[in-house]
Amino acid sequence: MKATEKVDIDTLISRADALIKEGTDFLMKEGKILELDNWLSITEYAKKYNLSTQNVSQWIRRGVISEDDYIEIGKFGKKLVRDVPYRE
Question: Record's superkingdom (predicted)?
Fold first, then answer.
């Protein structure tokens, strides 16, 4: 590995750490601490359960996925769904 590649990787890791800290600080400030092992993005959820992202979004709108099982973190543009199987 070249020295310039190492610096770039170190920079990326440093930026990632800063973003993780920023996200954690935001969630703590909002009073929302989550065990992220139990949550998936809509895309991840759709892939895991062999669904389309549109289907998952419709389930959220129609209440198939309850408010307790869906979180939107607006500052980061992330939508998370609890990792449990849902059925219409």
Answer: Bacteria
